[in-house]
Design goal:
Blueprint (H helix, E strand, L loop, with lengths): L3 E6 H6 L1 H10 L2 E7 L2 E6 L2 H25 L6 H13 L1
Parallel strand pairs: 1-2
Antiparallel strand pairs: 2-3
C-alpha cells in the first residue's frame, strides 16, 4: 500500500503537531517536513514505520539469498533438513 504524502513546513510541525500526528496515524499518511522549502524529514505512524522496516529486512534477506544462488553458495535441501534435525535433537 502506498502512503499518501503531504508536504508541510517545519513551522507546522511545531504549531500543529497533534493534527499532523493524527493524520499520520489515522490517514496512513506520510508528512514531508520542509526547511527553507526543501525536504528535511518525514513523519509516519510508528506502526507504518515497523511495517516498512520489516519489508526492508525481508527484501535484504531475499537479496542475500538471490546472491547465494547466483554464486553457487547453496546446499541440497536434504542437508539443510539433516542439519535442522541435529539442532533440534540437541
Amino acid at each position: 500500500m502506498l502512503l499518501q504524502e503531504t508536504i508541510r513546513p517545519s513551522a507546522d510541525l511545531r504549531n500543529h503537531y497533534n493534527e499532523i500526528s493524527r493524520r499520520c496515524r489515522e490517514g496512513k499518511e506520510a508528512v514531508i517536513v520542509t526547511v527553507n522549502g526543501r525536504g528535511d524529514t518525514v513523519s509516519i505512524a510508528y506502526e507504518e514505520y515497523q511495517r516498512m522496516k520489516a519489508r526492508i529486512e525481508l527484501l535484504e534477506i531475499l537479496s542475500e539469498a538471490d546472491e547465494d544462488v547466483k554464486h553457487g553458495r547453496v546446499a541440497p535441501i536434504q542437508d539443510t533438513f539433516d542439519d535442522l534435525r541435529k539442532l533440534l535433537k540437541g
